[in-house]
Amino acid sequence: MAKFDVISIGDTQYDVFLELEEKTKLFKDDGYQYLGVAFPEKIPAKKYTAVPAVGNSANVAIGASRLGLKAAFYTHLGSDQVGKEEVEIFKKEKVATDYVVWDKERGSNFSAVLNYQGDRTIIVHHEHRPYKLPKFADAKWVYYSSLAEGHDILHHEIPEYVKKSGAKLGFNPGSFQIREGLEPYRELLKVTSVLLVNKQEAQTLLGVRENPPTGGEKTLLQGLKEWGPEIVIITDNGNGSHAFDGKEYFHRDIFKVPVIEMTGAGDAYSTGFVAALAYGKDIQTAMTWGAANAASVIQYIGAREGLLKKDELEKRILNLVEDV
After folding, report:
1. Name one Pfam family in it (predicted).
2. 275 and 265 Cβ atoms separated by less than 8 Å
3. Which pTM was predicted?
């Protein structure tokens, strides 16, 4: 019997949320949207909120624990007060810290989240860490996401663990991994059970500049599926999420709720989706779990606050479906 339902792998961040004033400008160029602020200038922030112990994989570890799964987390924490605070948060959330590594030479990772009109741009700083996969106990699922540069060794160590243990792998490439493209992850993708990306990330990975892409989301799903994952998930903000398992295409609309702040929506979706599969649910149900969890998170500031417990998620789905 597996000791853990999910072992999450990734960096931990300290997020600072800055709500920008209304006179900030948005503009589009070459199909992409940009945030414009005066430069050089001091820009006042309407509101400031600090949230420790977050990040793609941290959010999934905590989210999985709240959904009733036995979760553990492999991460490197800085040797500072922030790191000490973060490990206590994981313990409080009942995430096993067996695989937490203390970096005695470096501090904590940091993100500045620029909020504007319900959405955000994130400026991320990751410290370089001496990554090496610990000797994991057996787990049903491994979830792998955002790490700093220098994580190449894990491209081989994670597939070896998955093959040996029989664990399923959820892979959500972070910003540094997206920049590297698909080729460095060829071995990893061949053993991936679920690949989760947003639409912009999918286009970047496949080198697709057209927006919308020729052939729509199906072209992106097919392109990513060719690299080996069993299931591909693409989230697309207000357009919902799309999935492809090599045989059938799936779509799930979003649940329309008031939006406070978008950070963590993708992680909440990933948490719900992977947790549903861990509970033996089908793809369509898993997409509903993901959408409902994301709909909760975006009603709060920060990626952790709105993550739901299992009974809360099930009630929320019933209420949201009734409201449609």
Report:
1. PfkB
2. no
3. 0.91
Q: What pLDDT score was predicted for residue 323?
A: 57
Domain ranges for the chain, please list them. 4-323
Longest CA–CA span in the chain (Å) reads 59
Confidence band, pLDDT 50/70/90 cuts, at residue 250:
very high
Structure token pair of residue 299: 């009603």
What pLDDT does residue 322 have? Answer: 56
Per CATH, which fold does 4-323 belong to? Answer: UDP-N-acetylmuramoyl-L-alanine:D-glutamate ligase (3.40.1190)
Q: Write down the residue that tokens 């990975």 correspond to.
A: 205
Could you give the CA distance from residue 316 to residue 320 in angstroms, rounded to a whole number?
A: 6
Residue pair 72/6 in contact (Cβ under 8 Å)? The answer is yes
What backbone phi and psi angles, to 5 degrees, belong to 66? -65, -30
Q: What is the DSSP string of 74-116?
A: EEEEESSHHHHHHHHHHHHTTEE-TTEEEESS---EEEEEEEE
